[in-house]
Amino acid sequence: MADSTESSIVVGADPAEVLDVIADFEAYPEWTGEVRNAEILSEDEGGWAEQVRFTLDAGAIKDTYTLAYTWDVTEDGTGTVSWNLVQAGMLKAMDGSYRLRAASGGTEVTYRLAVELRMPMLGMLRRKAEKAIIDTALGSLKKRVEG
Predict the structure, then answer these.
(1) Of residues 86 and 126, more confidently modeled
(2) 5-146 CATH
(3) Pick from 129, 137, 75, 145: which is nearest to 111 by CA?
(4) 69: helix, strand or coil
(5) Per-residue pLDDT at 119
(6) Terminus of the chain with fewer CB atoms < 10 Å: N or C?
(7) What is d(CA 39, CA 61) in angstroms, rounded to the nearest whole number?
(8) DSSP 8-state code for residue 104
(9) DSSP for 4-49?
(10) H/E element holding 99?
């Protein structure tokens, strides 16, 4: 996988509240913009989603893809939620994570993302697209949690 892009934001809520929003995949169409549908395909024994299928409509990029999730989080909501691509049409690879840590004023959320499309794309353009995805996702997450 190519280099990843990352950015952080402080959300005015405790980590457990932020984690609850991240884990509520079926509500993603209400606040993420590009996700039209999210369906949990399997859960682990703790009730965390293991695989989730998304339908994405981001203008030129329309795809249905499945991500596998790993939940390395503590009871207070701090830790890391990571994912990788299981299956997709346009996407060749997608690895990412949300890292949550308690911070002054709430929770620092760091989002890391690396995406590869099946069609060729210059690295500079791919990183710019990743940065736009991350900034939009973090802003939407903050608005959803604080709203």
Answers:
(1) 86
(2) 3.30.530.20
(3) 137
(4) strand
(5) 66
(6) C
(7) 19
(8) T
(9) -EEEEEEESS-HHHHHHHHH-GGGHHHHSSSEEEEEEEEE-TTS-E
(10) strand 91-103
DSSP class of residue 120 equals -
Q: Look-up: residue for tokens 């346009």?
A: 90
Q: Residue 140 burial by CB count (10 A; 0-12/13-18/19+): exposed, middle or buried?
A: middle
Size of the chain in residues: 147
pLDDT band at 126 (very low <50, low <70, confident <90, very high): low
By 3-state DSSP, what share of the chain in percent is helix, strand and coil, each rounded to 5?
Answer: 25, 50, 25
Question: In this structure, what token pair is assigned to residue 27?
Answer: 């509500």
Contacts of 38 (CB under 8 A, 6+ apart): 25, 26, 28, 29, 52, 53, 54, 55
3-state DSSP assignment of residue 119? coil
Please tell me the pTM assigned to this model.
0.88
Residues 81 and 96 sit within 8 Å (Cβ to Cβ): no
Phi then psi dihedrals of residue 142, to 5 deg: -60, -45
